[in-house]
Amino acid sequence: MARPVLLPLVATLAAFFGALSFVGSSGQARSSCSRVPARVSAEYLERCGPKDSDVPFGSASATGPGATVEFKKRPFGILRYQPGQGGKGAMAMEIIPKSRYPGDPQGQAFAAGVQSGWVVASINGQDMLNEDFGKIMDLLDDEVADPRFSKSTALALEKQGGRLAEPVEAPLSVVFNSIPGYTYKGAALTEDGQDGFAR
Questions:
Q1: Domain-by-domain residue ranges, the chain?
Q2: From CA 26, how far away is CA 112, in angstroms rounded?
Q3: Does pTM top 0.70 for this prediction?
Q4: CATH H superfamily, domain 65-180
């Protein structure tokens, strides 16, 4: 009597586990686009990916006043950058809103008055307004060293095909320009119990 019940159950389990076997396979039929979510973690996308509040911008429109900042060491205190239209240019989006102690590297952008929505105009005198976003990120190399995210960052770099440029040696001079009429609409960062910052 039990046999008719077991056969459908075994068939269902076999189909389920058979369907799961493709997840870890490296079959040629899958396109590189279908592998992207598996290679970049949710944490990486939450920290560095686009947000609904991001406003598209053209880096050539960054003609307003800003600031020239000398970053003495990394990280600078800018947690996320947004690429401009066509993948050109980079806008500072989320800036740590305080300096915790004198010389705090993650308070450099805040202490220099860098504002969310300002665009990287130049690095060490080199024009960045029409440069590829990935190249600007590699030149800045402004990634917070956090072991929770090191694997996802490495995978994102591998997906891009390696570095597009070698990081500029610190100290480095970065000019930020504002975009006339641009209003930052992102979330304000708040301090968490671990002395880090989150949205």
A1: 65-180
A2: 48
A3: no
A4: PDZ domain (2.30.42.10)
